[in-house]
Design brief:
By secondary structure, the chain is mainly alpha-helical. The chain has a single domain, classed as Substrate Binding Domain Of Dnak, Chain:A, Domain 2. The protein contains four helices and no strands. Helix 2 packs antiparallel against helix 3.
Amino acid sequence: MTDSEDSLEDQLAALRDHLEATAELPIDPQTNRWLGEAEAVARDAAAADVDPETARKRIQQVQRLLSAADDPDHEDAVAHCEAARELCDRILQ
């Protein structure tokens, strides 16, 4: 888990990593679609050439996508989604 003292870049990378990890898991196709979109936006937010304000706007979009997704029916996916939601909250504080 990421500490609140981690840099924005570290938090964005951790968020991206959690969402990328869900892509490898057997998840319902509808939920997987939302998580895939959230992953793509998180990947964009973690790009080196994105300024902090743009990154935060993208994280708001990730939050909306995660809230639209049903909870996955895979234990590891649930853990990754919870961690991703917590990271979004921390980044936007």
